[in-house]
User: What shape does this take?
Amino acid sequence: MSKWMVYGKKADFKGIAKEYNIDMVTARIIRNRDIITKNDFDMYLNGDLNSLHNPELLKDVKLASNILIDKIKSGKKIRIIGDYDIDGICSITILYKGLTRCGANVDYVVPHRIHDGYGINERLIDEAYEDGIDTILTCDNGIAAINQIKHAKDKAMTVIVTDHHDIPFEMINDEKNYSLPNADAIVNPKQLDCNYPFDGICGAVVAYKLIQVLYKLMGVSSSDSKLTADTKDLEDFLEFAAIATVGDVMNLINENRVIVKYGLKHIAQTSNIGLRCLINACELDINNINSYHIGFVVGPCLNASGRLESANIAIKMLLANNYDEANKLAIKLKALNDERKELTENEAKKAFELIDSTSLKDDKVLVVYLPDCHESIAGIIAGRIREKYYKPTICLTNGEDCIKGSGRSIEGYNMFEEISKVKDLLTKFGGHPMAAGLSLSPDNINAFRTALNSCQSLSSEDLTPKTWIDVPMPLDYVSFDLINEFSVLEPFGKGNEKPIFADRNLKVLSARIIGKNRNVLKLQLQTINGHIVDAIKFKAEENDIPELNSNINIIYYPDINEYMGNRKIQFIINEIG
Assistant: This one.
């Protein structure tokens, strides 16, 4: 069970509620998301497409556009090199469609996750040079490819980098010394001298902004519609920017909320055949796609192609103009994701058994070696282990020529810094505080595990998960109107999580396990004011059933249950205490 914490952030909630015509509870939730100023509240509650930041503020975006215009007019070959994950897939789709619309001689290449690894490499550059490519355009990668881009420039190739990752640096005399590749143009909001007001966008949004500027400079318009391409195409591209934003787990703050809100809404009328086929293959209602569906259903299908085969499958589906072709690829993606889920379940089960039956269970940092685990799902397995045990976790597996590892951390443990302390045991590593990737020799597995655990300083407090409660709200306060009002908080996701409420001293009138898999706890509770309510807890077990007539505390979210025309308030329980 987690430690329950209550947000204590202050504001004039009565004044905010009056100004924006919302409940004070809603005002508190928004403030808990670090929305402070009037401009912040306006953007959060009333932001629309006109609120999106001016793409021309991105450093080098006009330079990159003008280079592309010159290459297009002179018929030079342009090659997009993206990444194999959902952000890379959506970035390539946006750039390829946009450049094709501008008349470019353009193609695309995606690195293979296992054979190539992340990002552009010398082999891909040599291959492009042999194919007569004049210009390489990266997306969702390239900012750290200093040697690789030098290799391309040595071959007199033009290189444009579009990326959103952190700028690489070295610490010299306790100062960060940043290094940028010698590209002809770099479009990345994280550059120190970039004036773009928000650097938390994903690679696909960077690509979207580049195409916006390119369209404007080229005066692209549609011959068969009164709408200019600047309006029509970019509406279509917005949905891919939204999908990538959610799928790449970007913070849903600032313009990201607007992009996701309007992009997901646009999916209902999408003209993209492949996206329609994939949504249908996943048995979803295209008129009601939300961030959950992207993050946990559609997104994993797109990612599965790059994990188990090639991301080209997903890109071809999104670029398909033929229904039969798109549908065939969509069905394949769904099957690949089902296979990925089965592999994940099997390997996660092995990991749990290994931890519970060995001395691993006593470690504060888990280093779990699963030799037969598919390299591409090691990160997912690490996440599953971290979720179950709430410990920093690194999952190791056999790579092609070494041991590969992927890590997922917890708050209070900077995984990148901790791995840096034992880097002499590794052949390669990289990452950030919450995740990392690494390679090492088989002979160093035990030494790596021992070293990480020897230098950690995690306390029992660090190893206790925390649940932050937005408002301790009595169930009696909840109404249909309040639940409906919570829709202004959507879309939910990282940085704008679904709100969490709590109530105490609820009397248990009935409790039973239901459902096909016997994993749903159905409760009837009585509040201290005598109000009787229905509640439900998913992923429940027999030992979760509280005693009748006992008093319990709960963390919950209120929902409306509709059945045969009847609407009833139902409380979804996260935890019982």
Notes: Residues 358-455 form a domain with the Diaminopimelate Epimerase; Chain A, domain 1 fold (CATH 3.10.310.30).
